[in-house]
Structure formats: C-alpha cells, structure tokens
Amino acid sequence: GGVVIVIRTLSRVWFFTPARLVEFDVREDLFAHCLELQPDFYRNQATGDLISRITSDITFARAFAGFGILQVFNVVAALFMTLTQMMLLSPKLTLACVLPIVLAFGGVQLGIRTLMRLQREAQILLGQLSDQLLGTIQGVGSIQSYCVEEVFVGRLESTSQKIRST
To answer: How far apart are CA 48 and CA 46, in angstroms?
Structure first.
C-alpha cells in the first residue's frame, strides 16, 4: 500500500508537474508569437478556428509531455521485466507469445493512424463551430432584428451533428 502511494506521488512529481510547466511555456510562447503576427494573418484566419486549434494543440502537448511519456516508461519497464522472466522460464514459449504481440502492435499502429485522422477532422469541425459561435454572438443584434435566429441555430446544429458523427 505505502509503496504504491510513494510511486504514484513520485510519478506525478516527475511526469505531470513538468508537463504542466511545458504547457505554461508553450502557452506563453504561442501568445507572444500571436502578438507578433501581422493583421493580414488574422484577416485570413477564422478566429474560432484559431482558438480551437491553439487550445486542443496545447492540451495534446501537455497530455503527451505528462501521461504519454509516463505510459511509455511504464510499458518499456513492464515489457523488459516480463520478457526477462519469461525467457528464464521458457524461451520457446516466450517466442510463441511474442508473435501475437508483434501483430497486435501493428494493429494498434493502424488504429492510431485512424484515430489521428479522425482527430484532425474533428479539430477542423470544432474550429468551424467555434467560428460560427463567435460570429453569431458578435452579430446577435442583427440576427435578432431580422428574426433569423432559427437559421443560425440550424447552422450550429448541423455543424454539431457533423462533429458527433466524426
């Protein structure tokens, strides 16, 4: 019990705290970079799309810097210790077990590629939704004065449905 508490505490200090520091540094650097960009850049970019991309990219960087690296460390350590013990017990059985693992690894790689593609598609759609929301909020007076609320709600629902189906 106590060993688990110590290990979990140390993993949070060694992996998750640096990830938060990375996130902080990336946010500061990105914000400083955004302030240096010329107005032409912002005229050619949808504000909602920029906000969505920046937010999700920074979150992904933090998750990778913390949890991702921790998981890589855990898997490598577990594989090394397990394979060592298995080889000591039965080299033939160990080799018979390694083949399905290699095949499973290939399947996981294919799944990761598919997941990344779907993530990119969802990010584009989230950017569109954010842009639609910002535009609607900025133009709410005009929308209400022309009584076209249902049109804008329909557009948002359509984009939301695309996101749910991705």
So the answer is: 6
The pTM for the full model equals: 0.49
Compute the distance between CA of residue 65 and CA of residue 63 in angstroms, rounded to an integer: 6
Question: Measured between alpha carbons, how far is residue 68 from residues 19, 60, 63, 73 in Å?
Answer: 10, 10, 6, 9
- For residue 34, which of 57, 7, 16, 66 has the smallest C-alpha distance? 57
Q: Which residues, including other chains, have CB under 8 Å from residue 21's CB and lie 6 or more apart?
A: none
Question: What digits encode the pLDDT tens for the residues 18-62?
Answer: 888 888 888 899 889 988 988 888 888 888 788 888 888 888 888
Q: Amino acid identity of 146?
A: Y
Give the number of other Cβ atoms within 10 Å of residue 49's Cβ. Answer: 19
Q: Which amino acid is at 122?
A: A
Distance, CA of 70 to CA of 158 (rounded, Å): 39
Q: Residue 138: enclosing H or E segment and its boundaries?
A: helix 91-138
Closest C-alpha to 48, from 155, 128, 111, 149: 128
Q: Give dist(CA 78, CA 3) in Å, integer.
A: 17
